[in-house]
Backbone:
């Protein structure tokens, strides 16, 4: 039987933050395992032969309003400041996403756009964000027309491709991530801090793990070491249903087939991300060289084909937030609460659609609770 003080399952953001904190602040040994052959989880990136830094698991643009998260990660990376701008092709035209006042003038004749703008500002106020499902409840017939247009053109096709269901069948927070924005701010996010690690996410990950008390073992499945390892604490960022051998049923996840394409030309598309709600079978096309402003003769893009997660066939990317799944997750969570010294973290451990910054924040908060407990034990 192997003994470790802290066992961390999964070398993604949650696992890395906890490993770093426990090693550097508590001075305890940490073993991080991951079944993949690389560190970083889904933030892993690499330099393609064209010289472009590519995100293996699809686009990751860091953004946060939390200074503590920004300051924490800033210890491990320099930043390339980058404000994300996303377009969607609607009726063949590239339109700003989130759909905003500029988008309105792009898709409608001037007079109609101006009337709708006035109504939106009157009803919701300038600089206000309105989730599409809320806009669809408008009683005013002009706003109802607008809501239906945006719903059909921006959300319906994209969401069916991405999730296999309509926006109403998911938790409203999913489509609420990209609300209609009564503003001329053309950025995808409004957070104070927005950037990409200047030398890539993988280098940031290496810096986080670079501590003599942290040992990383790759190509290692929890199932294979579970019965052979004793730990004082276990941090588990794998799927919570799998931890409990699916005994209450399987939680559904969405997966992605991300297809990369390299072109012998400097640029492929007009900006870093183009969404295709109405066209093609992929949801979006991402051209990575825009992220770090890399100057290369070739370019690399990815196209994301969404599919249900099927065990043994593909990987889990997204939990599927709806009421039924939440109820099943809650049952697993109650079981988890009864496991002493086991902490479930991350998108799969918490079955939550976290952004990167939320993942870091939650891991930092968990660490602080553990540290407070340790102090209590000692004093
Ligand atoms: N969405 C959409 N059309 C778009 C962009 C987003 O319908 O052009 C919806 C869709 O349901 C998507 C969700 O909003 O899954 C969240 O989008 P986000 O860009 O945050 O997705 P992520 O980058 O996390 O995959």
Residues:
């Amino acid at each position: 039987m192997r003994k470790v003080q802290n066992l961390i399952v999964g070398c993604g953001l949650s696992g890395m933050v906890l490993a770093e904190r426990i090693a550097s602040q508590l001075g305890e040994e940490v073993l991080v395992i991951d079944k993949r052959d690389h560190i970083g989880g889904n933030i892993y990136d690499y330099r393609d032969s064209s010289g472009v830094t590519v995100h293996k698991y699809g686009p990751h643009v860091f953004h946060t309003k939390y200074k503590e998260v920004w300051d924490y990660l800033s210890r491990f990376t320099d930043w390339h400041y980058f404000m994300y701008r996303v377009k969607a092709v609607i009726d063949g035209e590239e339109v700003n996403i989130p759909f905003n006042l500029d988008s309105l003038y792009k898709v409608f004749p001037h007079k109609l756009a101006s009337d709708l703008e006035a109504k939106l500002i009157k009803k919701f106020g300038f600089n206000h964000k309105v989730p599409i499902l809320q806009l669809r409840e408008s009683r005013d017939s002009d706003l109802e027309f607008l809501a239906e247009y945006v719903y059909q053109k921006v959300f319906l096709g994209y969401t069916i491709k991405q999730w296999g269901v309509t926006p109403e069948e998911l938790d409203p927070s999913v489509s609420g991530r990209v609300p209609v924005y009564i503003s001329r701010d053309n950025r995808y996010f409004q957070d104070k801090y927005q950037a990409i690690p200047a030398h890539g996410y993988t280098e940031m990950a290496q810096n986080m793990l670079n501590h003599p008390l942290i040992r990383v073992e790759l190509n290692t499945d929890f199932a294979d070491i579970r019965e052979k390892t004793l730990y004082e604490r276990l941090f588990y960022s794998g799927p919570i249903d799998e931890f409990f051998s699916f005994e209450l049923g399987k939680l559904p996840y969405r997966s992605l087939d991300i297809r990369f394409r390299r072109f012998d030309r400097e640029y492929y598309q007009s900006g870093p991300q183009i969404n295709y709600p109405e066209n093609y079978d992929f949801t979006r096309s991402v051209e990575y060289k825009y992220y770090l402003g890399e100057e290369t003769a070739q370019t690399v893009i990815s196209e994301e084909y969404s599919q249900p997660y099927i065990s043994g066939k593909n990987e889990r990317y997204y939990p599927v937030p709806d009421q039924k799944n939440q109820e099943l997750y809650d049952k697993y969570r109650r079981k988890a609460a009864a496991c002493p010294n086991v902490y479930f973290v991350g998108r799969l451990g918490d079955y939550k659609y976290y952004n990167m910054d939320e993942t870091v924040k939650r891991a930092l908060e968990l660490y602080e609770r553990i540290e407070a407990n340790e102090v209590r034990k000692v004093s």
